[in-house]
């Protein structure tokens, strides 16, 4: 009977001439020392791999957490920035409105100054007209032989 | 003095005891200024305008020639202006003296490169005289000077620079400031002849006031883009009882009107454009003697009672139609 290669199961592994003994050992629930050592080595390697994979997994999980957190942060920042953008946009609109108002006010102020200038010039002209009328009145009275202005005679 | 005048001093006054003993005060001030100017060899002429002389009193021109040392006679020309001009020009019968109309008569007839319109109670300081002697004045500008008031009652019979420069004899006063450097401008307005001609002198349109006409000239100069500067040296003013600073608080309303005319007019905002014959240019002249000329009355020299187009707001350019008939 060709025993099954214990390390390989049903697969031929090249140790077939010696497989009897492992078969017997296997029957007895035992294995060669070398096989055990090999198996232990393989197990150790596999454990190390598993550990490394586990470490990498942990690191990846950490990374994932970090990126998730960063993503959340960026999302929050983006939200804030969007809010800021909206705020500045509103401010810019307000500023434009204020600029337009300021321009209108400046124009109005110029108009007021101009109007005031015209009014003062008009007032000055009225002064002159009043002065001229007083002078003419005085001359008329003087020609008629009346005192031009009793208050002047008191001086 | 045979050389053409560098500086024309334009003054106005009459023998009327304005502010107390006017005549001796005026003569002392004039002698002081002429002494100091001639000592520095500054070619100077004086254009004194005796506006509307007081009837029954000797002419100021006569008294001046009697009193002033003869070496200065040729420097002084007096224009005696017929009193009818005051009567027909004034738009305020209570106002007794159209001071700046009178000064325009002197400005119009000045021959100096530079013209200083000042007052008969104003003394030139040492620093100012030295500055004038350096011949550094620039045409196309109006120069102003700080006025330092001397204490009322200070003996002015023997004035020296030591007395004038002594701060104990001064009354504190706010210094002149840009842009107009206004404040007692009537005491010191200096410019070259061409600029005075271009501005056509002081306001002859608003003939209701005496006060503020000097300030109004500065507003006119600024509106005409003529730079105004502080000359950098003061003049001294002999205080007297009719000085505005003294009398404004004690004069009755009638006295105030007689002295200064309307006080609250728009001197800061409204300017003028005088007619071409400003300064009584068309008044016929006849000599009374070598140094005295009478300006006879002639209606052709008198501007109309009102010419409203000649009143313009400050900052506005002169309307082209202002000179149109």
Tag the structure with descriptive keywords.
heterodimer; A: 155 residues; mainly alpha; 3 helices; 79% helix; B: 325 residues; alpha/beta; Spore Coat Polysaccharide Biosynthesis Protein SpsA, Chain A; 9-stranded mixed sheet; 4-stranded mixed sheet; 10 helices; 15 strands; 19% strand; globular
* Shape call of chain A: rod-shaped
The CATH superfamily name of chain B is Spore Coat Polysaccharide Biosynthesis Protein SpsA, Chain A
Name of the CATH architecture of chain B: Alpha-Beta Complex
Query: What separation lies between the terminal Cα atoms of chain B?
Result: 42 Å
Major beta sheet summary of chain A: none
Q: Give the largest chain-chain interface (CB within 8 Å).
A: A-B, 22 and 25 residues
* Helix-residue proportion of chain A: over 70%
Our Rg estimate of chain B from Cα atoms comes to 19 Å
The total number of structural domains of chain B is: 1
Provide the β-strand percentage band of chain B.
Answer: 15-25%
Number of helices of chain B: 10
Quaternary status of these chains? heterodimer
Look at the structure and give the CATH class of chain B: Alpha Beta
Approximate shape of chain B: globular
């Amino acid at each position: 009977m060709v025993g099954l290669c214990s390390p390989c199961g049903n697969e031929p592994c090249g140790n077939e001439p010696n497989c009897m003994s492992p078969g017997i050992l296997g029957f007895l629930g035992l294995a060669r020392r070398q096989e055990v050592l090999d198996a232990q080595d393989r197990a150790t390697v596999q454990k190390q791999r598993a550990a490394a994979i586990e470490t990498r997994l942990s690191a990846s999980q950490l990374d994932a957490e970090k990126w998730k957190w960063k993503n959340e942060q960026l999302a929050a920042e983006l939200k804030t920035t969007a809010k800021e953008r909206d705020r500045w946009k509103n401010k810019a609109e307000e500023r434009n409105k204020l600029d337009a108002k300021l321009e209108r006010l400046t124009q109005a102020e110029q108009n007021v100054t101009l109007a005031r200038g015209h009014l003062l010039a008009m007032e000055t002209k009225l002064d002159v007209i009043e002065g001229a009328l007083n002078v003419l009145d005085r001359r008329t009275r003087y020609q008629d032989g009346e005192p031009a202005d009793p208050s002047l005679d008191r001086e | 003095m045979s050389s053409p005048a560098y500086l024309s001093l334009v003054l106005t006054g009459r023998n009327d005891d304005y502010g107390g003993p006017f005549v001796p005060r005026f003569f002392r001030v004039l002698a002081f200024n002429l002494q100091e100017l001639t000592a520095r060899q500054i070619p100077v002429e004086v254009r004194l305008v005796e506006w509307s002389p007081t009837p029954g009193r000797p002419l100021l021109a006569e008294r001046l020639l009697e009193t002033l040392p003869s070496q200065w006679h040729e420097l002084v020309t007096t224009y005696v202006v017929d009193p009818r001009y005051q009567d027909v020009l004034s738009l305020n019968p209570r106002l007794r003296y159209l001071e700046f109309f009178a000064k325009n008569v002197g400005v119009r007839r000045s021959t100096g490169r530079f013209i200083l319109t000042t007052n008969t109670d104003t003394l030139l300081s040492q620093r100012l005289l030295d500055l004038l002697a350096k011949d550094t004045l620039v045409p196309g500008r109006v120069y102003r000077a700080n006025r330092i008031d001397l204490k009322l009652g200070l003996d002015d019979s023997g004035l020296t620079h030591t007395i004038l420069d002594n701060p104990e004899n001064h009354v504190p006063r706010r210094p002149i400031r840009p842009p107009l450097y206004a404040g007692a401008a009537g005491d010191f307005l200096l410019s070259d002849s061409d600029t005075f001609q271009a501005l056509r002198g002081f306001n002859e349109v608003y003939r209701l006031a005496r006060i503020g006409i000097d300030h109004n000239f500065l507003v006119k100069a600024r509106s005409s883009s003529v730079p105004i500067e502080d000359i950098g040296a003061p003049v001294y003013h002999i205080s007297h009882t009719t000085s505005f600073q003294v009398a404004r608080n004690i004069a009755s309303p009638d006295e105030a009107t007689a002295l200064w005319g309307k006080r609250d007019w728009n001197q800061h905002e409204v300017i003028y454009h005088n007619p071409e014959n400003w300064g009584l240019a068309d008044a016929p002249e006849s000599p009374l003697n070598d140094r005295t000329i009478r300006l006879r009355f002639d209606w052709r020299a008198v501007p109309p009672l009102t010419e409203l187009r000649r009143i313009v707001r400050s900052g506005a350019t002169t309307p082209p139609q202002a000179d149109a008939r």
